[in-house]
Amino acid sequence: xxxxxxxxxxxxxxxxxxxxxxxxxxxxxxxxxxxxxxxxxxxxxxxxxxxxxxxxxxxxxxxxxxxxxxxxxxxxxxxxxxxxxxxxxxx
Amino acid sequence: xxxxxxxxxxxxxxxxxxxxxxxxxxxxxxxxxxxxxxxxxxxxxxxxxxxxxxxxxxxxxxxxxxxxxxxxxxxxxxxxxxxxxxxxxxxxxxxxxxxxxxxxxxxxxxxxxxxxxxxxxxxxxxxxxxxxxxxxxxxxxxxxxxxxxxxxxxxxxxxxxxxxxxxxxxxxxxxxxxxxxxxxxxxxxxxxxxxxxxxxxxxxxxxxxxxxxxxxxxxxxxxxxxxxxxxxxxxxxxxxxxxxxxxxxxxxxxxxxxxxxxxxxxxxxxxxxxxxxxxxxxxxxxxxxxxxxxxxxxxxxxxxxxxxxxxxxxxxxxxxxxxxxxxxxxxxxxxxxxxxxxxxxxxxxxxxxxxxxxxxxxxxxxxxxxxxxxxxxxxxxxxxxxxxxxxxxxxxxxxxxxxxxxxxxxxxxxxxxxxxxxxxxxxxxxxxxxxxxxxxxxxxxxxxxxxxxxxxxxxxxxxxxxxxxxxxxxxxxxxxxxxxxxxxxxxxxxxxxxxxxxxxxxxxxxxxxxxxxxxx
Lengths: 91, 520
What we know:
- The structure holds 2 protein chains of 2 kinds.
- Chain A is mainly alpha-helical.
- Chain A is built from 3 helices and 2 strands, in the order ααββα.
- In chain A, helix 1 (5-40) runs antiparallel to helix 3.
- The longest helix of chain A is centred in the first third of the chain and has 36 residues, at 5-40.
- The N and C termini of chain A lie close together (12 Å).
- The relative contact order of chain A is 0.13.
- Chain B is built from 23 helices and no strands.
- Chain B has a single domain, classed as Sodium/glucose cotransporter (Up-down Bundle).
- By secondary structure, chain B is mainly α.
- Chains A and B meet through helix 1, helix 2, strand 2 and helix 3 of A and helix 6, helix 7, helix 11, helix 12 and helix 14 of B.
């Protein structure tokens, strides 16, 4: 190993926080985007996609689906990459 | 009951003693007390009492997290809001879920690796214990108290409506059952009560949603079309509930970041064996809670079309009886009884979780950490935890009776706003920021709590809705938009103005333990 333990740990920590910040930022953007549309673009949300389904209801459901996707992305990343690097560090 | 309008009284049996509801209710009480008896024999140390011996599996904790989070407010409240306002109610359905990814990305794993029983453990880990624990306990107890009042007052009213017993009897009943679970069975019993309740609630809501969809050719859009046909296109798009844009943003902030600061939710991460299990449990919880809130779309619009907003408001002006009325319409009195019992189980489980987290702040943070300076032996710690449980339980009953008939919606908003403004910033900064200091943490937590309380007092929610004044000094209904950035700014500013190199030096050891686990 060329790198010291401390250097490797701080690299893992930096990556982990970068992933956390990017995903948190994505969630904030999606949710507050939805809230701002509700606040400032009501006619847009009232538009019908198909009979019975307004854009607002569709986007509301998509906010929930986005939450699922983002948690899945994080868990997948953590279970494979992050855990593998932690395993190496523990050895 | 005589308080119901005659037209509704003729068609609905809500408020009459309902044998099916009583049957389900006693079955639930018997089952959960059985669980408590089983758990009591396994609860010998504080690690059992607060953290179920770290023996809960990720799947079990995921369901229990969902159980802790899906309160009666979300089941009865959102269904009621959607059924009477349409789309506007859905703002809550989404807002209450989006905090969970934040919990997963920022909080769950570091919390599990750094703390023992409370979130104060994490903030205090490299800072001075006494001031941090006192400030964190104030934030925790403020959050827990307002959440507890909201649940208790809601419970008393609902149980009176559904079972026809008096408000005070209902509150005392909730208090006694909740104290029994926590006092004897600790976190193990509380966890299993949450699991039973979450399965009942998800099952009941799914059954209701399926029965609704069966009437509309299994098509949600056919249901929405029927709602728009009957009550106008407006029910499918944003309406008057969000007349002020900044109100919507501020409420959104409280819901999103408050979740990551709720003490009874954070405490659940200590019940699993390790950080990976904490991670997996949030993944399951997000899936379950998201499914539940998607179902509230169907339940709300179903109640709007099949029962009607006027009939719902006729039974209870807040709209909270929409889901029970829908159940009665679709499955008669037996299904009404089942849903009523589920709502009651929901309230009981949530107050048990709240009481346990409040007791941990009182005994683990204040008594053991501050008064006894970590010198209390195991028996004393457990004794104090149990005394705190009984004290908080009695306090909950007293507050529930004192606040009878009050508008409680703002108290849930208040609990989320304090959690987002006092607990969340301190937690995030202590995990992420090397230069965070004791003074910064204490300032941020105390200012977060105090400013939230002050601005709620000055807000239209309290000044106009409760005190009936003509206007309010502070314009926003929820203060999180101001108080959360204020708390972050104060914490950062104080830490920068009075740097503490000695406290920053501890960050490397903390960072190592945050990722790798083990001790500092």
